[in-house]
Design a protein that fits this description.
alpha/beta, 434 residues, 2 domains, binds nicotinamide-adenine-dinucleotide, Rossmann fold
Length: 434
């Protein structure tokens, strides 16, 4: 008999029970829609995704058994271009989580003014419990099950929690194998975040962290705050968290606290993010790193620091965490890390919040560069990618500040307002068929 994926679940240390990300996204949308006086018809369209796909597919394990996996792809909106968004491999993946994340992708692409819409997908399982060959078969079976529901001009996935450039290459290769022989090269851009060898872009791996650091730099300039000598803590030390830490340390900031799914660490003297990355590459977690002492989740949130960067999963910062935090600014590397109630507490306490759809949009921006390079059969130099990204992130950051100032709203609402204005304009021009 078939079994379902990931029988044993590794729980985060003393993590609180999560709420519903989609509900949180709706609260954020409602606030911005009110601030903007959004056309109610556009609001109606945006309040639900266009398509929600659920697939159950069997995969042969290394020992010959078949296990049944549940995969999803949510396509939120495509008025501005193909659906775009990551693929998540995690045991807590759910339809409502992906609906929230897919909507965030719609806002993010529109905010950055790139010709993409929003989507998100995933498989509900724990990738840490599977061998490389099982992960390859799971990824390929998932891609095959999605079939023509994805495509270079229809829906373009990318990496997210639990997925890597290697997995994106398996998606590309599988998709190529059910495309016509003459189209193989043209469909390369069915997915972004690939390895450079297989058509990825230089700079994509670091892009989300780099974009985050550009936002922090802009924030510091506005606040006349010196990042050289600043301290920061990071929750989640995967792609986003580790790159943010490495790039911030290059600017003279010190990592004094870190945590992931296995536990939390602190060292007031600082940790070396490069050595910590090597440790994580070898062991899969920050746990056991010699250059710091283990602390509890509660102690982590109460650490003295200038910047706090959530870069793990959504809904990690509730009222308790918001009261405990001792930072000057919360920089949302992760998608949807903060509950609305926590946001109100942070505002009362004078802690700035730089919102996810702005802060982590460097990833989708360089994904767009990768998609463009593939479309034109070009290869851009790393320097070109980094320069373009920095320019684009700084410009968008300043737009968000301007709108926040003009409308007297918080940064999140300002970012939503910019995105929703662009989407609403497209609907006003095009209407709906028939
Ligand atoms: P990743 O899989 O590379 O890393 C995730 C990290 O979070 C790991 O260190 C993991 O141990 C940690 N983690 C998982 N569960 C945890 C828990 N319960 N408590 C504490 N830590 C936990 O993922 P990533 O790509 O770095 O993504 C991190 C966040 O950034 C996600 O919210 C993702 O949606 C968002 N994001 C990623 C990108 C990208 O380009 N990868 C782009 C935009 C946004």
């Amino acid at each position: 008999m078939a079994q379902t994926g990931s029988q044993s679940i590794v729980a985060a240390p003393a993590a609180p029970k999560k709420g519903n990300l989609y509900d949180v996204t709706r609260i954020q949308l409602d606030k911005a829609a009110k601030a903007l006086n959004l056309d109610p018809d556009v609001y109606t369209i945006l309040s639900q995704p266009k398509n929600e796909l659920i697939i159950n597919f069997p995969v042969r394990m290394d020992d010959g058994r078949y296990i049944l996996f549940k995969g999803y792809r949510v396509q939120h909106n495509n008025i501005l271009g193909p659906y775009k968004g990551g693929i998540r491999y995690h045991e807590e993946v759910s339809l409502d989580e992906l609906k929230g994340l897919a909507a965030a992708m719609t806002w993010k692409s529109a905010l950055q003014d790139i010709p993409f819409g929003g989507g998100k997908g995933g498989i509900k399982f724990n990738p840490r419990l599977h061998s490389k060959s099982e992960l390859e078969r799971i990824t390929r079976r998932y891609t095959h099950a999605l079939g023509n529901n994805i495509g270079p001009e229809l829906d373009v996935p990318a990496p997210d929690v639990g997925t890597t450039a290697q997995m994106m290459v398996w998606i590309m290769d599988t998709y190529m194998n059910f495309s016509g022989a003459g189209e193989k090269n043209a469909v390369r851009r069915v997915v972004t975040g690939k390895t450079v060898t297989s058509g990825g872009s230089y700079g994509r791996e670091a892009a989300t962290g780099q974009g985050l650091v550009t936002c922090v730099t802009e924030w510091a300039r506005n606040r006349k705050f010196n990042l050289n000598g600043a301290t920061f803590i990071v929750q989640g030390f995967g792609n986003v968290g580790s790159w943010a830490a490495k790039l911030l340390s290059k600017m003279g900031a010190t990592l004094v606290g870190v945590g992931d799914y296995k536990g939390y660490l602190a060292n007031p003297e600082g940790m070396n993010p490069h050595k910590l990355s090597e440790h994580v590459a070898h062991t899969g977690s920050v746990e056991g790193y010699k250059g710091a002492r283990p602390i509890s989740r509660d102690e982590f949130f109460a650490l003295e620091c200038d910047l706090f960067i959530p870069a793990a999963l959504e809904l990690e910062i509730d009222e308790k965490e918001a009261r405990a935090l001792k930072c000057k600014v919360l920089v949302e590397g992760a998608n949807g890390p903060t509950y609305p109630a926590a946001e109100a507490i942070l505002a009362e306490r004078g802690i700035d919040l730089l919102p996810d759809i702005l802060v982590n949009s460097g990833g989708v921006t360089v994904s767009y560069y990768e998609w463009l390079q593939n479309k034109r059969s070009e290869r851009w130099e790393l320097e070109e990618v980094e320069t373009r990204l920095e320019k684009q992130m700084s410009r968008t950051y300043r737009q968000v500040c301007d709108v926040a100032e003009e409308r007297k709203v918080d940064y999140r609402t300002a970012a939503y307002v910019i995105a929703l204005e662009r989407i609403a304009k497209a609907y006003a021009e095009r209407g709906i068929f028939p």
